[in-house]
Every structure is written in C-alpha cells, then in structure tokens.
Amino acid sequence: MNKITETIRRLGIVPVIKIDDSEQALPLAKALEAGGLPLAEVTFRTSAAAQAIRNITAGCPNMLVGAGTVTTTEQVDAAMEAGAAFLVSPGFNGRIVRYCIERGISIFPGTCTPGEMEQAMELGLDTVKFFPAEAAGGTAFLKAVGGPYPNLRFMPTGGINPENIAAYLKIKSVVACGGSWMVPPDRISAKDFETITRLAAEAVDLVRRCRKEGGLK
After folding, report:
1. What whole-number distance in Å separates Cα of residue 155 and Cα of residue 14?
2. Average confidence score pLDDT of the chain
3. What does the pLDDT read at residue 216?
4. How many CB atoms lie within 10 A of CB 81?
5. How far apart are CA 50 and CA 114, in angstroms?
6. Residue 1 in this model has a pLDDT that exceeds 80
7. What is the mean pLDDT of residues 19-47?
C-alpha cells in the first residue's frame, strides 16, 4: 500500500466534490480541513475542476487532493499539471490506466465486474474504485469477490451515505468510501462552509465509530 492509499485508508472517507466556481475551492478545502478531513476528490464534471485543484494545492499544502471523473488522457494531463496527487476514473479504461502507470501516476480506476478487476490486477494495481457501489451489488458483491481476489482493495463510491457506510467499512477489503453528503453542492454554492465543516467532522466521527464497532483500526 503506497503513501497515498495509506492516507486515504487512514481517513476512511473521500469527499467527492463537484464545484462550479473555482473561487470557492479554497474555502471549501479549509472547511474540510477544519472538520478533520484533509482529503478531496475534485471531479472533472465541470470546467472549474483544474483551477479548483490548483487553488487547493496552493492554499492547503497539507491537503491530499485528487481528480475524479477522469475519462481522457487530456484530463489526466490537466489534473496533474494542476497539482492532483491521484486520479480516479468512473470506469475501467485500459488505455488511461496504462497512460498513468507509464508516468508514475496513482490511479484508482472504476470497476464493477470481476473481469475489470482482473484487468486492473494484470496491470499491477492493488486498489480500485468500486462504482456504482450500491447499484452494482453493494456489500454483498464485495464480500463475494473477496474470495477469489483476496489481495484486491476497494474504494466503494456511489450511493454511500451515513446510513450504509458502516456496512462497507466493516469489510476488510474496503480501504475507504467515496461520498458527497458532507459537501452538498447547495451548501458550496451558498458559501455555507460552516455547515460543511460540521458535516465533515460528523463524517470523521462516523468513520471512527464504525471502525471501532467493527474491530478495525
């Protein structure tokens, strides 16, 4: 497990952020840090993504920032130029994965079938995104693939919320869960960063309690 994956594992949850105004990125990052969650996946769903990553990395040097929803090599280049420490893709695209590996870029590609998982392992990856988690079979699916793929680790994303995250975190193969409930777009747009700090702190406490109850560190 590399340093980036270990940091993600330690925090247990990855805030998945869709941001429309890059000027809101830095106060958003500071709000997450204040809540004890110095981690963010800024998705390339808007044109503001690259500048948002650039603003966060410049203003919050202790924050681990990744780029999500990366679907082209051009986005890979833009994210890395902006300062992203890791990349996340919604699906498994072998060309993009190989492009990242050849350049020493940490990538967590999306997978939702055993075939995609085997392709990831064939390329030397040991941690992948499981997406869309709830729609693709949820915890039952992850427990089922844990038998044939005991060394593969997962970051479930898609439909994860405070009500079901505990069931995911109790699975030993789960490194962390991706979620967006602590960074709701309407609170970002309203510049209500105090609420985001509170939601982040609640998420951190929830992960801690879930792991304690599951006997995990």
Report:
1. 9
2. 96
3. 65
4. 11
5. 32
6. no
7. 98
Estimate the crossing angle of helix 49-59 against helix 73-82, to 10 degrees. 30
The DSSP bridge pattern shows strands 13-17 and 39-43 to be parallel
Tokens of 154: 């997962």
The catalytic site residues sit at: 41, 129
Q: Domains in the chain, start-ordered, CATH in brackets?
A: 3-209 (3.20.20.70)
Question: Residues 83-91: what's their mean pLDDT?
Answer: 98
Cα angle, residue 5 at apex, residues 35 and 133 outer, rounded to 5°: 80
For the chain, the DSSP string reads: --HHHHHHHHH-EEEEE--S-GGGHHHHHHHHHHTT--EEEEETTSTTHHHHHHHHHHH-TTSEEEEES--SHHHHHHHHHHT-SEEE-SS--HHHHHHHHHTT--EE-EE-SHHHHHHHHHTT--EEEETTTTTTTHHHHHHHHTTT-TT-EEEEBSS--TTTHHHHHTSTTB--EEE-TTS-HHHHHTT-HHHHHHHHHHHHHHHHHHHHHTT--
* pLDDT tier at 217, thresholds 50, 70, 90: low
Confidence of residue 174 (pLDDT cuts 50, 70, 90): very high
